[in-house]
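User: Fold this; tokens only.

Assistant: Input:
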Amino acid sequence: MRRLSAGLTAGVLLLAATACGSSDGGPSDAGTSSGGVTTVKLGIIPIVDVAPLYLGQKKGFFEKHGLKLEFTAAQGGAAIVPGVVSGQFQFGFSNVTSLMVAQTNSVPVKAVANGIASTGVRGKDFNGLMVKKDSTVKSPKQLEGKKVAINTLKNINETAVRQAVRKAGGDPDKVTLVEMPFDQMPAALDNGQIDAACVVEPATATIRSQGGREIASPLVDVAPEVTVAMYFTSAQYAQQHPDVVKKFQDATAESLAYAEAHPDEARQIVTTYTKIPASVLEQVILPKWPSEPNRASIEALMKLGEEDGLFKKTPDLDALLP
């Protein structure tokens, strides 16, 4: 059995599609305005990736553009999509594969700003496929018949794990993928509940602090400096509130640039929304925060997603991307 809880992801997408027709608190709501500042709700995953927006809020970049962010944590992009489409959030953070899956399931999502990119350096990426210290697994090929945790199914980490196994000469269909929040993966790996975990920072650093080993840099196996995730809204919200979207884009671009130029501040802000100890924080490998998505890498993700049967039809990148 390759995928557990696949029905959860399918159910999330069905919920999102159903929510499109809702007019009660739907995506037409701009957000809450007060004193010239609009408060917008943002669905995020509490990982290093979103540090620039926490930092940008602290530095006043969003306030300067007339916005205030209200953060809500979720397990992954697949869980954030229905919240954005239904109007629970005005914006969300999601890996690009989940956005492509949503779009090909007729869920009206629109990427509006870049999120993060892989470092492109094998063994020195913020994402890693990891095993515990005493594991006999040395290569992704040896994960055949074993249990590997990813944060949500049908997302970029599923594509990346399957590609890492494939590149190592293994059969990805023989690997069992299980859903698990990133922050639960270190303990699950340590107690033998899973055989490997595809993790991102700060969970990557936590596993290293436990003596865990990295057997692959799966995002590097997908493409050089792959665009991993983006900030998005619903197609309806983008159409009805272009002014708010433009403000969000401008403030986010400023925040990404600042985080890229001030890595120590980006690292430190992570302590405000995760429980990472200071000693582990020092080991955290930061992702890249470029201002623009890498179209070629997204096309590589799309091709692999099609090979793995993640999409009902070919994603329309021209419609999806900013």
